[in-house]
Amino acid sequence: MPDQTAAAARPSAAAHPPISAYALTLLALLTLFWGVNWPIMKIALSEVPVFTFRTVCLGGGAVGLFAIALWKRMPLGIPRGYGWKLTAISLFTITGWNVFVLYGLGMLPAGRTTILAFTMPLWLLPMSALVLHERLSGWKLAGLCIGLTGLAVLVGGEWQSMVSSPLGVLLVLGAAISWAIGTLLTKLYAVPMGAVPFVGWQMVLGGIPIFLLAPLLETDRWFVYSTGAWLAMLYNATVCFVFCYWAWNTLVRILPAGISGLSTLMIPVVGVFSSMVVLGEQPQWPEFAALALVAVALGLIFKPARAQPV
């Protein structure tokens, strides 16, 4: 697993260079593994309470990441003066995201409502332009609009049932905003650590409130889960919380924040189609229309800008 450092400077307003093959490979794997995790999470959460589920995932992910860091002899210490910055990042990317999205989804109908969480690019793009001074090209704005249209198509006829639970909608949107703020802070603070221990510390620091609440809120729910539930938790703790979180933080470091955020638009589409395979749901025209729209959006987002004449 390659490691990326935080040595890169903040992005300038200049147009971004073509996306490297390494970044595209990471993005493709991240999209696949995070996308198929939605039906896998449904399997786990049918038996496992939400805080217990996240405790296992965060704890397992942190242990795995620190084990990799030790194996590769990476420095594990938090650089002096960056402790509070790393804590702030962790509270948004780990605590806020996980608590808001799990409680929000508990109040909303099952299925496509998780797509609300992937409105994250809608919040991150203007943040990155205002704070990081990243350039908002016409292609990127067009890609954002088309991609969000694809997500709106996926929501489809379930919108009325979603707005009947406004608190649930607000919580999931809060999760998306929390993720966007955490991504922005990751780019802004540029903590000088390797990506592997950096993500491991995020899970420890951001997981503390979850670790403390799990035994308080779910003391009567500890029992022997089925093999399917344990396999789902194992997938989350290893593939999602080790590889996917590492890959995401690596992409945030090597790509402009707005581009890394927009690149997540395909994940809910993969989630919907994988739910059809795993849970036996039947595809309808909105799924195929959304897939086409998001594919067009990604093509526009990753379109290299023309070089400026000298």
TrEMBL record:
It is a multi-pass membrane protein. Keywords: Cell membrane, Membrane, Transmembrane, Transmembrane helix. Signal peptide: none annotated. Pfam families: EamA. SUPFAM superfamilies: Multidrug resistance efflux transporter EmrE. The chain crosses the membrane at residues 21-40, 52-71, 83-103, 115-132, 139-157, 163-186, 198-217, 229-248, 255-279, 285-302. It is found in: Cell membrane. Residues 24-155, 167-302 form the EamA domain. This is DMT family transporter. The lineage of its organism: Bacteria, Pseudomonadati, Pseudomonadota, Alphaproteobacteria, Rhodospirillales.
